[in-house]
Amino acid sequence: MLDPALLIRADSGITTLTLNRPAARNALSVALMTEMEAALAAIAADRSVKVVILAANGPAFCAGHDLKEMRGLKGRDAVAEVFALCSRVMTAIVRLPQPVIAKVHGMATAAGCQLVASCDLAYGAATAHFATPGVNIGLFCSTPMVALSRAVGRKQAMEMLLSGRPVDASLAEAWGLINKAVEPEQLDAVVAEMAGLIAAKSANTVTVGKEAFYRQMEMGLDQAYAYASEVMTTNMLARDAAEGIDAFLEKRPPRWEGC
């Protein structure tokens, strides 16, 4: 039996999805992306999951699309379906009710860099590198560009897309592609601490906040404030908000109900 392309582990409200094609540098094959899409759909419906960690086995985080597989495709429709599948996976991460944290220990290139940019939070080992090198092989990273241009500044994104050169973890942190670059031996602990911190919050509040964050970013200022005010009004009337405020005033830990 072949090892599964995606490993799934759940522990105390935290689900870890681990890309498991180390020999292929965790390239996003159709099989791997299909497993990811199914896993994300199951997580979205599972109220016991509070946080998702996206990790990878082997020396690389993700080398992007499986180019050998892509070269074997016949016809425009077959190629288009692969990119559509990848776009659905990336969108599912953004739309997932639970926050997703990327734990990047090695190179993340092309669609692998897109994967990092799509996550809500990202932490990288100081030895990690990030690149959108499609321009080097005649294939501009147009779909990775969507996530990248929403994570970093315009000129930083264009530098990566036009040059194809790798960016190290410290520069990725400065540009906002990752939250923090840490020593490799500290990466697991840093990600676990952040995941545990988020998992201890009201799941309902976190879900409401994540959805509102991405929706308001697509709006003009007046519309964003009107929308956010409606969201906050509804949130204020939720049981967890009442419990959280009472707990704060009474100087005790809150007892979340998740609603």
Overall pLDDT level = 96
Q: Beta-strand level of the residues, as a percent range? A: 5-15%
SSE succession: EEHEHHEEHEEHHEHEHHHH
How big is the Rg?
Answer: 19 Å
Quick one: overall form?
Answer: globular
The total of beta strands comes to: 9
CATH topology of the largest domain: 2-enoyl-CoA Hydratase, Chain A, domain 1
* Helix proportion: 40-55%
Q: From the coordinates shown, what is the CATH architecture of the largest domain? A: Alpha-Beta Complex
Distance between the termini: 43 Å
Structure description:
- The protein has 2 domains: 6-199, Alpha-Beta Complex (2-enoyl-CoA Hydratase, Chain A, domain 1); 203-249, Lyase 2-enoyl-coa Hydratase, Chain  A, domain 2 (Orthogonal Bundle), CATH 1.10.12.
- The strands form 2 sheets. A 6-stranded mixed β-sheet has the order 1-2-3-4-6-9, with helices on both faces. A 3-stranded mixed β-sheet has the order 5-7-8.
- The termini are far apart.
- It is built from 11 helices and 9 strands.
- With 259 residues, it is of the alpha/beta class.
Q: Keyphrases for this structure?
A:
259 residues; alpha/beta; 2-enoyl-CoA Hydratase, Chain A, domain 1; Lyase 2-enoyl-coa Hydratase, Chain  A, domain 2; 2 domains; 6-stranded mixed beta sheet; 3-stranded mixed beta sheet; 11 helices; 15% strand; globular
